[in-house]
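Fold it.
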Amino acid sequence: MKKQIFSYLAVAVITTSAALTSCSQRNSQTLEWIPFNWTSDSLYGKYIEKATMNIPVTIDELPHKFNMQFDLGAVRTNFYGNALKPILEKYPSLNCKLDTTKRFWIQGKENPMFRNVTLRLGEVVFENIEVGLFRNFGDETSNDLLNSEMEIHIGTIAPDLVQNKVLIIDYKLSRLAIADTLPAEYQNISFEDFIIDNRRIKIPFRINGKKEHLMFDTGASIFTLTTSKQNALAIGGSEIVDSLTVTSWGEYVTFYGLKTVLPIMFGDKDMGSSIVYYSEDTSWDDFYKSENMWGLTGNAFFFNDVVIIDYKNNRFGVK
């Protein structure tokens, strides 16, 4: 199944707000960890060990194993229409929750919403939530897969599920947690304030001594930095050291990498030498400008860290 390496062009305009209920553990600060699995991919012959973060989930009381990509560059949690089609046919109870009067936009198209869905991520339960239906997207679930014990890749988990909470991503142990307040073990780490726009966050880096904001997107695992060609040339060497062709919601895009030659910092953390990528497709430059940001960053800078995203106080920390 094709992995969605990039997510952030899928700008969804939400016309209704989801009534999110509390997760089962939120009456205490005993963290209940949600496991995630790294999926690998081969992009034009280049093996990527950690391409996407998939979380095992269950939907309502359906007797199947599912997984969904954890993607903070998306806006609305959604099911993929092609993958869900045979499941809706088999389970009318889920199909009856589809409300065509509620809408969300993704990739410039209007889509309906499910109401009163229960998602279980590990032992953490989200009850009576709204989930989008991304029509005509994803690979169709075969009968063989539906009748097997294998997990079915069914959609995307977006930051609508963690608003006004504290999200903890433990990259080393492949797990995440959601809390009402900042747990005691993370009280003494340094935080940087971030900007939040349509549920997606932009964190401050210091690039060659200048403060720049980058969107933090867990759907972009394979790149440390992506930016405009002009910005990439300003901090990178002249020689292209890497190139990758990836999919962004079904569209193929080629990125070229330059080795960074100027300092890159997040707070007091020196990010070291890395590769900065750009595309010759000017629509990406337009995207960065429209979002008023230098570029994007993802998981690759933080594979050995614990990241804390405090959505209550708009701050981002690394331990």
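The chain has five helices and 24 strands.
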